[in-house]
Amino acid sequence: MTNTKTKFIFITGGVVSSLGKGLASASLASILQGRGFKVRLRKLDPYLNIDPGTMSPYQHGEVFVTDDGTEADLDLGHYERFSGVEATKYDSTTSGKIYQSVINKERRGEYLGATIQVVPHVTNEIKEFITSHLTDEDFVLCEIGGTVGDIEGQPYLEAIRQIAYELGRQRVMFVHLTLLPYIPTAGELKTKPTQHSVKKLQEYGIQPDMLLCRSQMPIEQNEKRKLALFCNVKEENVITALDVSNIYEVPLAYEKEGIDRAVCNHFCIECNEHRSDLSKWQKIVDIAGHPKGVVKIAVVGKYTQLLEAYKSLHEAIKHGAIANEVKADIAWIDSELLEKEKPEKYLKDMQAIIVPGGFGKRGTQGKINAITYARENKIPFLGICFGMQMAVIETMRNVAGVVDADTTEFNLACTPVVGLMHQWQKDGKLEQRVEGGDLGGTMRLGAYPCELKEGSKVRAIYGVNEISERHRHRYEVNINYEDILKQSKMVVSGRSPDGLLPEIVERTDHPWFIGVQFHPELKSKPFAPHPLFVDLIKTAIKLG
Ligand code: GLN
Predict the structure, then answer these.
(1) 444 in ligand 1 pocket by Cβ < 6 Å?
(2) Nearest CA owner, ligand 1 atom 6
(3) Count of alpha carbons within 13 Å of 163, Cβ hemisphere only?
(4) Residue 1 has pLDDT above 60, yes or no
């Protein structure tokens, strides 16, 4: 259980989905940090999957991975990037996980013969998730996934209602994020959907303390007064969440609206005239708003119709651009296009090419074609995870002449340069996998150390001998091909401490050609841009 000083802020969403609850939660957390408070962010997703790991990127966007190897909702990426607080397995749950834990306890006989029910057993499990594994946090911000009114979300609303009842309202605040749609024919913002959504919350016994209203224009005071009166919320706690062009402006915009003052008042925390220190955000917004140039970057992948699938990558590229005081003009290119048409059509103006992570055969030849183009034309290239595996296959096929080089992920009759990992070391213990095992949660996941080769490009970029980066893959480049690769001017410049797993490759005949088995984008933050993205963009600008 928590100490008695920790306060809980629950963020629910109403009216429509995709309002940006994750970003809103992350921004509020960052503003509270600017007042010197210690925060932690948590996400509860009402779907029945154990985690998003087995979901298609088209369904759920990117799968974020934490240091401890949890496959989590992409909102955890917003949380880490905005707050700098590393998320753990205790910060992300789903109905699947909650039910699994309840059913496991039932099988072990832990409920002593009771009939297992949603209330209290499932709700207790949710309450336990929310209040456990905390230390001295001032605020825990918990985002409830989905939209109020969803059947799946009901146990969560009941659980947070009970927490407020048990801890008292002086330790709990309910924030409801809604939408005020603008109806052009009426020429006004409409408050009715928000009123209905709040009524729905009230049905579950939850009275919101704050309304965070997404709107494309400022909300007039009389509209705020109306919402306050009808929704039973203080007028000063009706906060406009104005659409902004750049997500880094969100903390500044919310602070201007007085969100942190409202939170402090709710919890009776003295806040005087003192304001949250958001100078670091201001700096980022200033640089991003006045770039000194543009850098054109191609991302060649297969989930390009849904940018949420590359959320962290998109952010990491922006961080790298901001660090170089330029704007990244990103071309999201469907790799299948590069199978039908000449790559130069899409890539000739590009200053850098990235092939990101991916799964399955579709579009792989297009990725390989993009890599050949980057290699031959000396365009700075970064291959991430699957992109690194493809870069190795490209060198094997097109430089070393091993034409049937491939991955056993989808081709068993090949020279298996990339193959299924059967065993590896994790924290001193051996992890083992067999062909045809479970797909969920069984990849090589989370942070692993990697030793960088002396004199290599990556060693110069990182400036250290050993790094720790996050992984999410089942296949791995086979180290036995190291010599052939070396003869083809591709060296293994980073490997696992036992020397068995190649984690980084780079070409020695190219200004910037690096493939990494991990996902550097997961660790990049606006205030701590990832060195690989910073250096890639720096080189892209230099080479023009
Ligand atoms: N499909 C590849 C593997 O499992 C790469 C995964 C990825 O790019 N994240 O190894």
Answers:
(1) no
(2) 473
(3) 29
(4) no
